[in-house]
Write a structure and sequence with these properties.
By secondary structure, the chain is mainly α. The chain has one domain (7-68): Arc Repressor Mutant, subunit A (Orthogonal Bundle), CATH 1.10.10. The chain contains 3 helices and 2 strands, in the order αααββ. The radius of gyration is 14 Å and the shape is globular.
Length: 86
């Protein structure tokens, strides 16, 4: 059965995808929310959110696409705020 991802779960993925592997992230989120989150579910949700990782076993670095850059912020990073146009 497909579960609806809460905003808190998506925020956890957004904040931790850059320094956890998909396996580690799925395990930590499973403990946090009290339901089983598979590696494939974590990965699919991360990809739906537009967060891609650099290829390689155990590599935790996130790749930023040009479209993820917010033109409204002078730092060039997307603010990821709800009022942001990106």
């Amino acid at each position: 059965m497909n579960q609806v991802w809460s905003e808190g779960e998506r925020n956890f993925i957004r904040e931790n995808a850059g320094h956890l592997t998909d396996k580690q992230g799925a395990a930590k989120l499973s403990i946090l929310v009290g339901r089983n989150i598979t590696v494939n579910a974590w990965r699919k949700q991360r990809q739906k959110m537009g967060i891609s990782k650099k290829p390689g076993r155990g590599v935790c670095k996130v790749e930023r696409k040009q479209e993820d850059v917010c033109v409204e912020k002078p730092t060039g990073r997307c603010c990821q705020a709800q009022e942001c146009s990106k």
